[in-house]
Amino acid sequence: MSLIGIGHIFSSICFILSLKFLSSPKTARSGNLLGIVGMFVAVCCALYPAQNAIVSIIGILLGGLFGYSIARMVQITQMPQLVAGFHALVGLAALMVALCAFSQPALFGIKVDESSHIPTKAIVEIIVGAVVGTITFSASVIACLKLSGKVGVTKSVLQKYWIILGIITVVITSIHLGDCQCGKFFAVSVLLSLVLGVVMVLPIGGADMPVVVSLLNSYSGWANAGIGFTVSNTTLIITGALVGSSGAILSYIMCKAMNRSIWSVIFPANSEGCEKSEHHGLSASFTSAVDVGFLLKNSGSVIIVPGYGMAVAQSQRAVKELTDLLIENDVDVKFAIHPVAGRMPGHMNVLLAEAGIEYEQIFELEEINDKFAQTDVVLVVGANDVTNPAAKTDKSSPIYGMPILDVGNAKLVVFIKRSMSSGYAGVDNALFYQKNTMMLLGDAKKVLEDTVKAIKE
Amino acid sequence: MSIDKLKSHFEGLNQSMQVLQVELDSFMANYCGVNIASDEFLLYVNIFMLACFVGYHVVWNVTPSLHTPLMSVTNAISGIVIIGSIAATSTSGITVNAVLGFLATVLASINIFGGFGVTHKMLGLFQNNKKGKQL
Asked: What is the pLDDT of residue A309?
């Protein structure tokens, strides 16, 4: 019974509790601290018996400095691409460790045959760690670039080749399991996985990104578990399973919230441009910030629905200003968040929290959907598809079946958008043309600031 | 039948039994989990399975408003791969392995420090403590 073994068990306990404490914002911070403690103990246990501990410590300090400065500099609005970028690092690290295990199995206590032939089980574990790690790496790089807006959507024939590539990877890998354990096959597997990761994410568009990022979160966990089996370390296995299931659950929640299966997200159907639905000769009514300010000031209850547009316009502070002003004027203000609003699970919550809006004012879809009917004004800031009633009525619509926020039930709905163009799903929103809806076009930040000014006068 | 013949038959039987025993032992060892090596692997699979269940139950209880910090904290925790990279670096001399292990250590610690730092920052934004929600 070694102290190091106990240390590892302690780390695992810390990690499990760390996630458990994320059940409420009050305990969440302690959860984060517990995670840090667990990691610290695990690293110490790894450094203690290591030969070149100094080298590793230098590496830790180097990486730590870099990581810490990134954490300090990054803005909350860049969170999606940051999370995606970090996943890439984990995948790459997992690949490197798998490579080391492959070239020097004795180092990790992997029992080798007389002809230095690694047993099949160990090879499978190494391959899992390497392939999943590489896929995580390349897919996360592309996801990060997409979320930063540097790469667009490439819907192309590549998709079909992806399946073929996937199969080839599996085949190469199984040949690997045979007698020929040469580095050549390893390199080919890794290269193919690299391409696989890229091809997997390229065709996926913006609003589906929450699913992709959660999936990659999951993959990084499974890569870790694979490495754990290779290195025979239970902390790695447990942590990998925790992270893997976390990502998987988040992906499931996201897909449920869009009412699409995971396959329709990963293999997006090539939509040949949706036909414009007729508006039955109705036209939308437009309004101005001044009018909206007046309306808001004199209403009893207001619900604000933020969307990706709010993030793009960086208008969360303006939203907070408006909220405070309305509360001063005795208006009840609530926020309604749709699960897939934004580019990442919990995206809107974090943006609103950054602006200083208290989490007790923020409600999820199930909690608030029946309150819309009693609300005077609904202010939709940069959201579109999550309010589109076609999801309930139009069977041919790509968003059919998706749970939506029933903003149409309110007495008055105001949409703040840049233009009348359709949202990510490419469908028209019939709500725009209803009698109780008004459109307020312009940049969300400017529009909201103008509204605030109007109320103050 | 003479006693000698009986004896030789008996010995022959004995030998066959011994051969059979050896065969059975190796069969049991290879396929019935009596082998120590496969015991260890099964143990790890057990742990993995249990950990998946724990992860499932723990993560379902995370409130949706904290999903982004959940992602960044699980990201930071994935940096645990640093255990493997530290083990890889612990070789004598500057081998390819040692360099790879060092690089992996750097990458993993970027994740660890960055992930926990970013989570801390985000959770600090949720710090407004008031009494329960009013609906």
From this structure: 87
For B132, which residue in chain A has the nearest alpha carbon? A360
Give the Cα separation of B117 and B128 in Å (integer): 19
Q: How far apart are CA A4 and CA A13, in angstroms?
A: 14
> Between helices A3-20 and A25-47, what is the axis angle to 10°?
160
Per-residue model confidence as pLDDT tens digits over B35-88: 555 678 889 999 999 999 999 999 998 988 899 999 999 999 999 999 999 988
What pLDDT is stored for residue A185 in this prediction? 76
Q: What is the 3-state secondary structure (H, E, C) of A139-188?
A: HHHHHHHHHCCCCCCCCCCHHHHHHHHHHHHHHHHHHHHCCCCCHHHHHH
Q: What is the model's pTM?
A: 0.82
What ipTM was reported for this prediction?
A: 0.85
Q: How far is B18 from chain A (nearest CA, A)?
A: 28
**Of residues B71, B14, B109, the one with CA closest to residue A220:** B71
Nearest neighbour of A32 by CB, restricted to B88, B92, B119: B119
Q: Is A83 in contact with B73 (Cβ distance < 8 A)?
A: no
Chain A environment of B47 (Cβ under 8 Å): 234, 237-238
User: Catalytic residues of A, which ones?
Assistant: 385
Å between A288 CA and nearest CA of chain B:
30
Give which of B71, B94, B97 to mutate to test A binding, by max A Cβ within 10 Å.
B71
Of residues A60, A217, A249, nearest to B60 (C-beta) = A249
Q: For residue B57, which residues of chain A lie inside 8 Å, CB to CB?
A: none
| A29-57: average pLDDT | 90
d(CA B77, CA B116): 8
At residue B134, the pLDDT reads: 33
Longest dimension (CA), chain A: 87
* SS3 (DSSP) at A439: strand
pLDDT, tens digit, 9 for 90 and up, residues A353-394: 888 888 888 998 888 888 888 899 999 998 888 888 888 887
